Amino acid sequence: MNGGEPTDVDVAVVGAGIAGLTAAHELVRAGLAVRVFETRSRAGGRMASHRHAGYTMDEGAEQIPSSGYRATWELLRRNGMSEAELPLIGGPIAMWRAGAAHSGVSDLRGLVGGAGLGPRARLDLARFLAWAARHRRRFDADVPESSPLGTTTVAALARRYHPDLHDYLFQPVVGSFFGWQPERSAAAPFVSLMLDVGPPSAWRTYRDGMDTLARELAAHLDVRTGTTVTQVTADAGIALVTTDHGPVTARAALLCVPAPVAARLHTDEREPVRRFVDACTFTPTLKVSCLLDRPLRLPARERLYTLLTPAAEEPVLAGIIADHVKHPGRAPAGRGLLTLMTNPSAIPGLLDAPDDTVAAALVEPAARYVPGLADSVTATFTHRFRHGLPEATPEALRLRAGFAARNGRYPVDYAGDWEFLRPSSEGAVRSAARTASRVLACLRTPVRAKERV
Fold it and tell me: Where are the transmembrane segments (predicted)?
């Protein structure tokens, strides 16, 4: 990396999602001049929240576990945020099967109550959980390729057990929360993440919206929203970032965007890096927020947080989240808010459709599970991410080690949940922290950046 000629900034960060903001935060703490560029009008990326008439709608990420997210919790505490600002959700997750909601998904009580699984399937689930517990230490979310599952897909893993485990557990969970198709994505990152996050009873949410941490970080950084980066090149140890507002030079540039976007912006000279970035496909996500005139309950005796609707039962809808159960502040007093998630197989046909078409396509089936829904909706908002979550294909998993061993002296680097093929904010935060450390090791003595423009 360049250590002589002055540049506009020490580090240019492309993308103001949680990865870009975390990397910038770490570098600024170390005394570097950092500028963040974001195409959208606000920071947050896939952790953004939309606010309207007293409602707070989480566009992407939905929850954070109490354990397993060490880097995220360290970042939160460093920024003065306590657990009081991340209250427990408390409500259980249920699976729809044969006309009824069955609670206990991803919880040990599902072995007793069923959670939509038959007796033989529950025995196989117990077998699977016992096997995962025995091999727990080999499931390292930072090194998913090292797990005993290798490049086995979710569908192939499910075929080792009763068919119910695929139809009423693996597919609904990865389809709703990851946006994955089981036959395309590797099981190792999924199992690693499930082992890390623990049962839904320990999940939390940000009291003031899932973008709370992003907003806190952005408030103390030089973030240029509404600025589109069109190309990033490296020449003589300097990174040149071309934006629609003019070029910016930096001693290092960090691409903190989804891998397909990073590949479009920069052609990496290092073959192992380029091959992994090219292999990191993303699945799109598509959700609809339904603003309600009253807080409807999901169909169960318990006050459910989420109802999953398996593809075996429902072709369009993947699940329903009761946001007013997640936290009462998500909706005004006496009102309700539901999030409708789209089945991954239905997203391609809806992703580019008008918002009202998408809303109609999801509200109609959701009304079969939530009585009174059609009459209580006062407005809908559609949230879509073309690059929603890293797909974690077997090919990307096979190439990840070459990317992880990349040389830190190259003036362009990367951060994001896709580095670990881990579709979570923790994956993004851990990746950003590691990348920031690598950059700092190369820029030990900051040169004076030119006066900011």
Answer: none
